[in-house]
Design brief:
This protein has helices at about 1-10, 30-40, 60-65, 80-90, 110-115, 175-180, 190-200, and strands at about 20-25, 45-50, 70-75, 95-100, 105-110, 125-130, 135, 150, 155, 160, 170, 205-215. It is an alpha/beta fold. The strands form two sheets. Strands 1, 2, 3, 4, 5, 6, 7, 8, 11 and 12 form a ten-stranded mixed β-sheet that branches. A two-stranded antiparallel sheet has the order 9-10.
């Protein structure tokens, strides 16, 4: 009965059929911008916050939005990136999944186009613009991957492997149920995942028409060469 009600709601178009997974660790400065941008581009999305024992006020910020959309907060013990994402997927109730960085802000997105492309590609990731102290900085190191050319199965000469980035990425939920992220790795779970997908004869897409601002955080691992 619950499934039938869910399908009826989706057919009536009263909300977008997407669950948004946001990993959180003391992101009170930016997480409100991330959530508000989700509400700007989606109609009542399901937002799942997987929290890694935050000690700041970030969860209070999250709850400011609980009157606007369906928000779930899940505490993740023994954190790894892949484990957090898999927990989010297990708690997702909708057919499409977006993974979004807690320190980002969506600028451009077409959900109808994304759904159509996900019938062809196993996953899609979008363009990220690095923002440092409000300033749009010169893309260096990892940021050079986020150019203006669409790319199928992007390969990184910098990393010498396929490049995919989970800070702004899209999937069918069924894909992540069938092929969860590896929970062992402490980082780069997205690169290992697409390597496995390529080996399984699937293709992924970099779509520069999907754009976010990605804000600097002092503990961020991808901010070499700020300037």
């Amino acid at each position: 009965m619950e499934k039938k009600i869910h399908e009826l709601i989706m057919r009536e178009g009263s909300m977008d059929n997407i669950s948004i997974i946001i990993r959180n660790k003391n992101e009170e400065q930016h997480i409100g911008y991330a959530i508000q941008s989700c509400l700007d581009f989606f109609d009542k999305p399901e937002i799942i916050i997987v929290d890694n024992d935050s000690s700041d006020n970030s969860l209070d910020v999250v709850m400011f939005f609980n009157d606007r959309t369906d928000i779930k907060i899940i505490n993740n013990k023994n954190y790894t990136p892949g484990k957090a994402l898999n927990i989010g997927v297990k708690n997702a109730s909708r057919d499409y999944v977006m993974i979004l960085s807690a320190h980002s802000q969506i600028l451009k997105l077409d959900f109808k186009s994304i759904k159509k492309k996900l019938d062809t590609y196993i996953a899609i990731f979008g363009k990220q613009t690095p923002i440092y102290m409000g300033k749009r900085i010169t893309p260096r190191y990892i940021w050079t991957h986020f150019n203006d050319e669409e790319s199928i199965n992007m390969y990184s000469n910098l990393e010498n492997r396929y490049f995919f980035h989970n800070a702004f990425s899209f999937f069918k939920k069924s894909t992540l149920e069938n092929f969860p992220f590896d929970e062992v790795y402490g980082s780069k779970e997205d690169r290992y995942w697409v390597k496995d997908m390529i080996e399984r004869k699937n293709n992924f897409l970099y779509d520069p028409s999907l754009i976010i601002n990605h804000f600097y955080t002092k503990n961020g691992a991808t901010w070499k060469g700020i300037g």
